Amino acid sequence: xxxxxxxPVAATPAPAAMALVAPQIPAYAPLLAAVLxxxxxxxxGLLLGWSLVAVVxxxxxxxxxxxxxxxxxxxxxxxxxDRLVTTVVWSTFALAMVxxxxxxxxxxxxxxxxxxxxxxxxxxxxxxxxxxxxxxALMGTLVITALATAISVPIGVLAAIYLIEYGxxxxxxxxxxxxxxxxxxIPSIVAGLFAFAVFTLIFGPGVRLGIGGAVALSVLMIPIxxxxxxxxxxxxxxxxxxAAYALGVPKWRTIVKVVLPxxxxxxxxxxxxxxxxxxxxxxxxxxxxGTTTTLNLNPFxxxxxxxxxxxxxxxxxxxxxxxxxxxxxxxxxxxxxxIVMTLxxxxxxxxxxxxxxxxx
Amino acid sequence: MATSIDxxxxxxxxxxxxxxxxxxxxIRARSxxxxxxxxxxxxxxxxxxxxxxxxxxxxxxxxxxxxxxxQSLYDPSIDPVAVRRQIGMVFQRPNPFPTMSIYDxxxxxxxxxxxxxxxxxxxxxxxxxxxxxxxxxxxKDRLGKPGMGLSGGQQQxxxxxxxxxxxxxxxxxxxxxxxxxxxxxAAIEDLIHELKSDYxxxxxxxxxxxxxxxxxxxxxxNLKAAGQPGHLVEFNATSKVFSNPDDPSTxxxxxxxxx
Lengths: 360, 259
Ligand SMILES: Nc1ncnc2c1ncn2[C@@H]1O[C@H](COP(=O)(O)OP(=O)(O)OP(=O)(O)O)[C@@H](O)[C@H]1O
Ligand SMILES: [Mg+2]
Description:
heterodimer; A: MetI-like fold; 13 helices; 72% helix; flat; B: alpha/beta; Rossmann fold; ten-stranded mixed beta sheet; globular; binds adenosine-5'-triphosphate; binds magnesium ion; Phosphate_transprt_permease (chain A); MetI-like_sf (chain A); Phosphate_PstA (chain A)
């Protein structure tokens, strides 16, 4: 008997050539499917007299079922799942865009008519019907927001530096973090009341000052700035601080010259978003700044007009000139939205300009 | 002026965790001292305690004495910033400043401390340091480009150039060659030989040949068991450690028989 097992071995199947090519539906398939689904839904809607919402929902349902089905028939199950998920992701994105797009559309459609050189450079002194402009409110918003920024950015950034670089989770730092978190939730009307109470204590009852508005807005801005800066400082790798320490650089210089520049892009973005957030605040300004029809550039002297309050009072006054007032309110809203959007774009540009560069 | 370092009965903690226990040694001035030992035995930790970088980590603390030129490093009157200006460090992982160019990275130690200097003087320091770290020919045409745009090994050499640009008395190097090719490694070893005439150099390495080649004294760290603190097993002249070590575990480690 030989030691070698001579029984025939089951033939191993020859390895199939690796299949790297699979049938595919064309690249324009999703688009084609979307067009077909919309067309079908629209046709059905016309014939059966559906509302627009029903047509859109039907088109969406057709697409979600149809495209993966088509894909499953030709490409197989895995691709079909991919198509399904991709379609769902795109539709949620579109859903999120609907309110934004319709809001911008509404504001532009209603507001663009009154925008003119006069609208942007005249105030409302003595104007009742047509004419006049928002120059006073525009300047008021710019002055008060700039002041609020000047107050909150140093306080917010320095507080964040304390929390991250010096506090490092000690009791004081934890208390401050908690208070900052509470402050982020303060309703803006409460911030307005706070500023009103403070300035009433100092200047007596019935006080109306631009600086009061800046203080109220700061109360809203500081927590946002602190949180944004904190998160950015946390992202700066500990190794960079150590590299600086090992070169004999004192801690404060390390913070100013290594940590802050590394985090600057994010901090600037955070600050700009905070500005954009408070630029449209109405309630606190209504309480402490009031409004007026003439230009007042001095925040330490009496009432100032601001865009949000201007919009509010224009649409709530009513009366004989209601149409003109509403038109001006839409125009002011358009300007306000434009300012906020510009700020956001600016934040992106600045953030990109300051972020650490890599590559050659 | 070069500096010797006396360490006596040093315990190093991370919070409650004792990482390194009972180290006694004398690092001689104008010499190269190498530390070898298995991963996690506390070589980096010990090195960082020599220029007060250890305390930068929250909760980290040190017990015992480190005496540099007759001054106790952990005395309350000692300014850690002054210590670090005299005792430079190259880290295990390269950490160039991401916001700075190659040129500015080399000058970081001077610039960050707001030292004023003429352009020609600065250019001179940059060239000398980069040549010392064997990086000059590779980057001389793009000194203004970001330091993060270099390869890992180039970044490490940039960090070495940055550390020697401030001309410290003592240079601590934590595995400076672990990411480098043999040519750059040889260049760094040449640099170490050169610096040795003026400076005190301490180097951590996993490369036994390197320790044997560059160092005058060698310290072998080991762990008694997993979870136990690291400790200094043997500290002797390199020639003795590599030919006739006192401790059998040193010989086992060097010849590749672990445990
Ligand atoms: N930041 C830290 N916090 C807590 N423990 C740490 C920290 N850094 C290191 N340790 C611990 O201290 C011990 C020694 O670590 P160390 O980095 O000094 O080792 P090493 O000898 O340099 O190792 P390697 O050769 O891998 O670099 C290890 O047990 C490690 O887990
Ligand atoms: Mg190490």
